[in-house]
Amino acid sequence: MTPAIEIGYVNVEVSDPEGFATFLTDIIGLTPSEPTPTGDATWTDDDAVQRVIVSEGPRNDLAVIGFEAVDSAALDATIERLGASGFDAETADGALVEARRAERITVVDAPWGTPVEICVGLERTSPGPSPLMPGGFRTEGQGFGHAVVATTEFDESVRFVTEGLGMAESDWLLTEIAEGIQLEVRFFHCNARHHSLALARAPFELPQRLHHLMFETNDRDDVGKAYDRAFDGGLDLPNGLGRHDNDGMFSFYVASPAGFQVEVGHGARQITEPWTDDRQYDQISAWGHQPVAPR
Ligand SMILES: [Fe+2]
Question: CA spacing 20 to 30 A to 82: which of 4, 11, 180, 221?
Answer without folding.
Answer: 11
